[in-house]
Amino acid sequence: MSMTTPSIAEPKTGSKRIYNFSAGPAVLPEEVLKQAQHDIWDVANSGIGVCEHSHRGKVFDHILAEAEADCRTLAEIGDDYAVLFLQGGASLQFAMLPMNFLNTDKTADYLHTGEWTKKAINEAKLFGNVNVAFDGGSSSFDHVPAANEINASDNAAYTFYCSNNTIYGTEYPSTPSSAAPLVCDASSDIFSRPAEANKHALIFAGAQKNLGPAGCTLVIIRKDLLESANTPLSQMLDYRMHVAKGSRLNTPPAFAIYMMGLVFKWIIDQGGLTEIAQRNRDKAGIIYEAIDGSGGFYKGVARPDSRSLMNVTFRTPNDDLDKRFIDEALSNDMSGLKGHRSAGGLRASIYNAFPKAGCEALAQFMKNFAQRNG
Ligand SMILES: Cc1ncc(COP(=O)(O)O)c(C=O)c1O
Predict the structure, then answer these.
(1) Any ligand 1 atom below 6 A from CB of 89
(2) Is residue 9 pLDDT above 70, yes or no?
(3) What's the rounded Cα separation, in Å, for the pair 354 and 210?
(4) In the prediction, which pLDDT does 168 show?
């Protein structure tokens, strides 16, 4: 694989696509990429490319309105929720959330299930009191909490959880229940299954795994929550301002919103979230079967009851074999299988747009690798 970037004047030849197991930015649907290729040149027969339109013009009005409408259809989001397209990544939401809804007279409950919840907790502590209602650190973050492992506080301002822990490969099998308003970091499994928006007060997700390119964060927020927001706040960090201005308080990430809109349409065309969920179960099942059927050669990182359908984490018997696995997989056109630097091992990220054939190819490769090295 050549890493040299050709000059933009040179024709690009010999391009091919391989199986991309990257945890994010990640694989996008081919239909979406092909549409985008066209629209970068000329979108909606306007004679202007999608990146070149004013964010206040009619063409972008339509792109934004359609992206929001399709998002609402897909996730069954009612009028009592606002849908926002923001910047700053999921990481800014770690700060914006407590900045808006926490203070030193209030406590928020956090379910700590890995590196991302740690970052969220640290941000929240800057604004108010945090009760770590579950701490997965003592079991190396190998599972998400069952209801009886959660020590909720009385009158929490909100309960924060991360539905899918991208690094450790754990995922809540269903939405946890909470008496307090429920907030979800769904960055790595948003719209991989029915969203249950109505069980949440706020859901956010960086786009770059399941929704599109990096640069936009989807926020779904119940409007009544806004009434309890702190004031005054810097405009760009105030959910109320973004809601009032319909995600156009300043120049929005127009291209990323356009891409998200195409991905929403793609999911709808595939049959919606129930169908996508079934496909994701099938796809992940193929790789987990290869782990479980390896006679102990591969070990899954997550406890079976918390296994992620988006990020399958596993190990070979040792670090040297992990490295050999990654190198040989790449020679077989399978990229991005190295585990996160804080967890090590191997990780296959298989988001919505990742094809089933790629899961089958990986499972086959895993069997072959185990036979040769076991
Ligand atoms: C679950 C989760 N939350 C938050 C983040 C941080 O996202 P961002 O880079 O958009 O700030 C990530 C990134 O991988 C993630 O996986």
Answers:
(1) yes
(2) no
(3) 10
(4) 97
